[in-house]
Design goal:
The complex is a heterodimer. Chain A is of the alpha/beta class. Chain A has a single domain, classed as P-loop containing nucleotide triphosphate hydrolases (Rossmann fold, 3-Layer(aba) Sandwich). A six-stranded mixed beta sheet of chain A has the order 6-7-8-3-9-10, with helices on both faces. A four-stranded antiparallel beta sheet of chain A has the order 2-1-4-5, covered by helices on one side. In chain A, helix 2 crosses helix 3 and helix 3 crosses helix 4. Chain A contains eight helices and ten strands. Chain B has a single domain, classed as Orthogonal Bundle (MetI-like fold), CATH 1.10.3720.10. In chain B, helix 5 crosses helix 6. Classes of the chains: A alpha/beta, B mainly alpha. At the A-B interface, helix 2 of A face helix 5 and helix 6 of B.
Chain lengths: 251, 244
């Protein structure tokens, strides 16, 4: 994989004229699906840089939180404020990589061409992006015949092609082999170094330790704690996080 | 017509088949004319029906609105339009005293194209709606994350479903080229003008000229088979590349 120098750093992208979208402020966020609240009165502040890991047991509301922050779902009540914008206003300035990558029924290169064209980006960047995620040699192959790790790298390249200021990742390495996990983490780390704000859902404790600046721990739709990574792993503050880290189920 | 044998003159169906094959293989000009007109009418109708039906199918596939279920029921019901009824309705509109009578289209290939288009546009719309709705379910969240406009999403769905939609178009073409009820009413089965394979088969059978009827039947089957084979081959190639 080549250096990231060929990629446009977010600060120089021309659609950044509408004010900053960081920091993030979440107030009293509630999401009900049917009767039960899936997210229940969440308050959260995220700074302008770094990598935040969102952790918590299955069903704690991590993926839904990501979708709300990205403007793909509407909260029942509460506020999400990105800088001075609502979530729905800033979707285009963010990108989300799903656990299971949704790739177009086209070649690897055509998947990137599509996004670059739709978003009015310079299509000359396609080869650099493919090179960056180590898929240059697969450019003309059908995207849906890629291995799981390759498919996720293509999804990441597609996300980066939109020059996001915030990159959400929803368990992107959940079913990948260690080499693929390392490749993805390397690409995400490069993005963070170029100033992209990373918000990353994972169950992988090793990954969280390697990547996190801070950890948001959810439990039963509530924020159990939001702690710097240097404190979270040796000394989690909440009982829920202590149970989770020690392998006891807290669903 | 050009083959005077009648049923009673033929020793067997086998003989009719032999004569039919001879007609096909010798490239009989009358036969070729009928086949060419059939293809022109039905291919044009299929193309126009796709131009109308695909956008409607796509729009309904990605939209949620009040009364959507009713629209779906109507779309599906229209797939089963009886060709004679369509023929009659088009006839009423195009006949001299009808609202479109001044166009002078009755008993022309254009009238036949109109009738077949009305017949198969609902098929294209309803089948493509199903194909595109399934694909949309897979792509929708990713497309919203990428902030695609509705037009961009529809274009991408149509392109990514192209191989499935080819089958949809084929279903429409199959229905058009095989129907007789609509084209015989609005076309009139006029020799050298509006005679197509199905109307010729109906006429020649009633006249007892089974050889020509069978020859046309063989050609109709061969066209149907080869078009299907071509589309299947294309789909198979696409499947191997995971493009379906």
């Amino acid at each position: 994989m080549s250096d990231a120098v060929t990629l446009t750093p977010p600060s120089t992208v021309d659609d950044r004229t509408n004010g900053l979208i960081l920091p993030l402020r979440v107030r009293d966020l509630v999401l009900r699906l049917g009767e039960a609240p899936v997210l229940d009165g969440l308050n959260l502040d995220l700074g302008p840089t770094g990598c935040t890991m969102v952790m918590g047991p299955n069903g704690s509301g991590k993926s839904l939180l990501l979708k709300l922050l990205h403007g793909l779902a509407q909260p029942t009540s509460g506020q999400i404020v990105w800088g001075e914008h609502t979530a729905a206003d800033v979707t285009a300035r963010q990108a989300l990589v799903f656990q299971k990558p949704v790739l177009l029924r086209r070649s690897v290169a055509a998947n990137l061409d599509f996004v670059l064209r739709m978003r009015g980006k310079n299509r000359g960047r396609r080869d650099a992006l493919l090179d960056h995620v180590g898929l240059a040699h697969k450019a003309n192959q059908p995207a849906r015949l890629l291995s799981g790790g390759e498919a996720q790298r293509l999804a990441l390249a597609r996300a980066l092609a939109t020059d996001p200021e915030v990159l959400f990742l929803d368990e992107p390495t959940a079913s990948l082999d260690p080499a693929s996990v390392m490749a993805i983490e390397q690409i995400v780390s490069d993005a963070r170094l170029r100033g992209v704000r990373i918000i990353f859902v994972t169950h992988d404790l090793g990954q969280a330790r390697r990547m996190a600046n801070d950890v948001v721990f959810l439990h039963r739709g509530r924020l159990a704690e939001h702690t710097a990574a240097s404190e979270f792993f040796p000394e989690p503050q909440s009982q829920a996080a202590r149970d989770y880290l020690s392998g006891r189920i807290v669903v | 017509m050009f083959f005077p044998e009648h049923l009673e003159n033929l020793h067997s169906i086998g003989e009719a088949f032999a004569l039919a094959l001879q007609l096909v293989l010798s490239g009989d000009p009358d036969l070729l004319e009928i086949v060419a007109l059939s293809l022109r009418v039905s291919l044009t109708a299929t193309a126009v029906a796709c131009l109308i039906g695909l956008p409607i199918g796509a729009l309904v596939a990605i939209s949620r609105f009040r009364g959507r279920t009713i629209v779906l029921v109507v779309m599906n019901a229209l797939m089963g339009l009886p060709p004679v009824v369509v023929g009659l309705l088009v006839y009423l509109h195009l006949s001299r005293s009808g609202p479109l009578g001044f166009l002078g289209l009755l008993y022309t290939p254009t009238a036949m194209i109109i009738a077949q288009t009305i017949l198969i546009a609902p098929i294209v719309a309803a089948l493509s709606r199903q194909v595109l709705e399934d694909l949309h379910a897979e792509y929708a969240e990713q497309f919203r994350s990428l902030c695609l406009t509705r037009g961009q999403a529809v274009a991408a769905l149509l392109w990514d479903a192209r191989y499935s939609l080819l089958t949809v178009g084929l279903a429409g073409f199959g229905r058009a080229v095989a129907e007789v009820g609509a084209v015989i009413i609005v076309g009139g089965n006029i020799d050298h003008l509006t005679r197509v394979m199905t109307t010729a088969i109906a006429l020649e059978t009633s006249k007892g000229d089974l050889a020509l009827a069978l020859a046309l039947g063989v050609v109709l089957l061969a066209i149907s088979l080869s078009v299907n084979a071509a589309v299947q081959t294309l789909r198979l190639t696409a499947t191997r590349q995971a493009y379906v």
